[in-house]
Predict the 3D structure of the following.
Amino acid sequence: MINVRNKLTSGICEGRSTTSLSDCHNGVIRPISFFFQHRQLSVVLFSSSCKTTLPKLSPAVYNTSYFSIRGCESPPQSLFARQFSSVVSETVSTTSSDKGSSTKGETKDNDNKKKKANASFFFDNLGKIFLLVIASIIASLIRSSAGTRNRNTLRDTLEDIALVDPVELEELRLANSALDPDTFRTILQNVYREFPNGTCSYTDFVHCVRRTMVQLKGDAFTVELGHLVDRLMVQVLNKQEKRGNSSDGSNYDNDRMPVSLFLTILTMALYSETKDRIRILYEVLQHQEEIQKHSDNNFGDSTDDTNNGNASTQYVSIDQVRSMVGYLQDSCQLPPDTQIIPTDTKYPTQQWKRGAPEELVPWQKGNNGENSDLIDLYTFATILRSKSVCAWGECYYKRKFDKEDV
């Protein structure tokens, strides 16, 4: 190393040779600074005006040396600091870049591992997932089949307990072709005239109807196939006795039942279109509503209107409508399918029950105050033709009913 230094410090200044570091101090040759870093030799010459000629070195020296020639204006100390800072900054930047690249590489590796883990979990458990889906589908089908079977069982039960089937009802109407709407209205007025309080026994009701029919068309005029009507009357009376009270909440002793109940059962023999049958049932409800109003206002058991058998009430209450639906239900004039409603028991299988009149005719009061629960003729016909009631199977006809059909 000393030999290399001696060789470097020898040079020619303005054509003359010098070997001293202090020679050419007047601007020809100035001091030379050596900096060793990482086993490399750095030589800095501080003379821009000096013509320095470095001796030829051996290849080994050039391989281990780093020469940097800078201007003479800067002092040796600052140049040494610059050289050192540049080397350090290069080292730090190289280290930081290596760390950043390694961090990014690790993040990518982690993401790839996660993706591979997710993909491998799905493919590793593909068979289990497939079996789980198939089991869920099979369980849902079994549950749906069990719920349908429960509903069909209840429908079969309702059909078995029905005392009159639709075929017998059709035969009853055809056999009583003489019992038209006008004749039935006359019977209705005479019954309410004779029983102004709206209740009577079944025997008294039959006598009143027979007298009216004889007065209209003679002794030969009677209810054909009357045993079907009697069969239903007995069933309804037994149900009313078990309940202990009537549908509208009034108590009846000595087999006294609402006249509207007997008239509703008698409409089974009415030979007419559906709209005429609906009008007659609505007139029955009007009479019952009139009697109820007079009873609530303490006007006595009868008035001029009720004595004449005419009702002046234009609307009926929703409670009266529900009572009429209950009478139709008891007299087998509603299809079994529409009476079946689901219960709150849905698991493990759906359970069903026979709906009560309040459930078959849901009604929510509007914003009209006290008149919101009053029903007109058109609304009454809409309720009877709805899918939840479907009186006489009217809901199965695929056509829209207008007010003209009422």
The two ends are 126 Å apart (CA to CA). Residues 2-82 form one domain. The mean pLDDT is 74.
